[in-house]
Amino acid sequence: MKLFIKNEDVRNKPGFKIYDCDGNDIHSVSIDYTVLGIKIDVFNFHLKRISKIRERGFYFNRTYKILTGDQKIKLLLQVKGSSILATIIGCPFSIQGDLSKKEFSILDENKTVLMEHKCKKNVSTYYELDIKSEDYELLCVCIALCIDTLLTINIKDAGKDVIYLVKDIFKDKRVLDGLRETFSPNKLDGCKNNSECEIIKED
Description:
The chain is mainly beta. The chain contains 3 helices and 15 strands. It has helices spanning about 135-150, 175-180, 185-190, and strands at about 1-10, 15-20, 25-35, 40-45, 50-60, 60-70, 70-80, 85-90, 95-100, 105, 115-120, 125-130, 150-155, 160-165, 200. A 12-stranded antiparallel β-sheet has the order 8-7-6-5-4-3-2-1-12-11-10-9, covered by helices on one side. A hairpin with a 5-residue loop joins strand 4 (about 40-45) and strand 5 (about 50-60). The protein is globular, with a radius of gyration of 17 Å. The relative contact order is 0.15.
């Protein structure tokens, strides 16, 4: 089963719409940014909430509490240098791939692939989900939404690329000074050829 996640306004706020391969709108996702974190709610076609996600964290880690029906899990995302590590608590799933590029797979305890997630670009960025098990469809979608809402930026630190999570990046003076240097007018002129200017974000 293939699903597609696209950025669209939901209830006059930024969010996602989820479509099937026939172009039918099957889920809408509202996203609220609060002082404490991010609130993500998933609604079905009849606008009934079927899942909720609550996020807390800092610029090097995020914790997501996911509730779908009677399933309750936690997703921990932790920045380690130029990569993002994922840990799932509450079910025997694991995530493999490059989360910063939104290219990853969800595996069960037997290393069987439950879902493949790819980042696609046409006029704008969207995400393609290839779900292998319908039993875990909603749970896989919720895990994907957590990762799809990540906004990251690459900063040169001691000659190496280091990932920071943009939502809280401006609380770190060292990072802020690096951003000022990276995005100064002179550097922005050559941004297309400058790896320091690489921003990974949803359109």
